[in-house]
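This section describes the prediction task in plain terms. A model, or a person checking by hand, is given the sequence of a single protein chain and must write out its three-dimensional structure as a string of tokens. No templates, partner chains or ligands are provided. The sample shown here is typical of the held-out split.
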Amino acid sequence: MNKKDLELFKKKLLEEKITLEQELGGIAQKDSSSPGGWEATTGAMEVDPADENELADKLEELDDNIGIAHQLEKQLTDVKAALEKIDTDTYGTCEICKKPIEKERLEANPAARISLKHDHSS
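The expected answer:
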């Protein structure tokens, strides 16, 4: 991979990292005791315990935020791993076959860890 492409992918990854951290910040807060480093929240949890509907809404919001936060954390982990690979000159190499990942795939997903032929989720 040439230096120009690498710089472009690094720029995209850094922008995505900032976006993911901002999105996580809207539904979670940093928590070093949490496995991913983030703990989902609902904002102010002050509800009248007598108001069952309000309490149910807050619990549903928390449940939704937990799922979203886990997905965002996974994406953020992949982005950070890709940035580390750029620093160690291993970026763009398939984790399965150790061959270069297709440039088109990296353009669509700069944090891709495997080549298209190994991705069975598509």
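For orientation: The chain has a mean pLDDT of 85.
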